[in-house]
Amino acid sequence: MSPSTYVIGNRTASSLQKETGFVNSKIEECTGQYISIGKMIMALSMNTDLLSQIVMINNKTVNDGKLSSFFDCAYWKRHALFNEQAIVIWIYGENFEPCNALGAHKTLYKIGAIYYQFEGLPATLQSKTENIFLALCYHSEDVKTFSWKAVLRPLISELQMLESEGLTLSTKDGPVSVKVVTSCVTGDNLFLNGILGFVESDFLLVILVNTVLCQSHNF
């Protein structure tokens, strides 16, 4: 499924004209890429049997005292959609450097990405990368310039719609109306520190990398 481009904000870009020596300024759009969660769920429902393996009737939990999935926890049993047909997703965010992660310009091209998985899948399917789906891609520096609200706008908007209005899926038993809710939001150190308003730092990452390098060279 192709992503859609959305505008995060506008900024002024300046460039030096070599011929005249003047600085040319123009307004350019800062954009991100978003892949609709609702459309992806509809496509998976029509073309695969992945969603058929998800626990959609939430009261079919095994009350044996063991926590084998998100649906066994007390939080879900108090949820407003408990005992209703729902698809629950787990969101994960991270920042990565597609170029030299330890170089002098390591933050120049840093990208933020947000993924999601479906709660209730068997463990054999949960860990496969093919069942981890990309929702959002953005330039990490745009968060500092325009705020998280601007960057996450399409994701938050659709999640609110999916929880309040839901989707109608085509199944072998006929149309099924489901709501889509989020179980939790997790991420790497930089993503969680940033979205929670804490200080972001690569210090722990550098320590980990140096430790691995030293061990691999028997220093």
Explained architecture:
- With 219 residues, this protein is of the alpha+beta class.
- The chain has one domain (32-187).
- Helix content is 28%, strand content 32%.
- The protein contains eight helices and seven strands, in the order ββααββαβαααββαα.
- The protein has helices at residues 37-47, 74-77, 123-126, 141-146, 148-151, 153-164, 189-195, 203-216, and strands at 4-16, 23-34, 86-96, 111-118, 133-139, 167-171, 174-187.
- Strands 1-2-5-4-3-7-6 form a seven-stranded mixed β-sheet.
- It is elongated and about 75 Å long.
Strand order of the largest sheet: 1-2-5-4-3-7-6
What would the average pLDDT be, to the nearest integer? 80
- The secondary structure category is alpha+beta
How much of the sequence lies in strands comes to 25-35%
Count of helix runs: 8
The rough form would be described as: elongated
CA distance, first residue to last residue: 47 Å
Number of strands: 7
Share of residues in helices: 25-40%
Q: SSE order in H/E notation? A: EEHHEEHEHHHEEHH
The radius of gyration is 22 Å
Low-confidence stretches: 203-219
Summary keywords:
219 residues; alpha+beta; seven-stranded mixed beta sheet; 28% helix; disordered C terminus
Reconstruct the topology from this structure.
Layout: E1 4-16, E2 23-34, H1 37-47, H2 74-77, E3 86-96, E4 111-118, H3 123-126, E5 133-139, H4 141-146, H5 148-151, H6 153-164, E6 167-171, E7 174-187, H7 189-195, H8 203-216
Parallel strand pairs: 3-7
Antiparallel strand pairs: 1-2, 2-5, 3-4, 4-5, 6-7
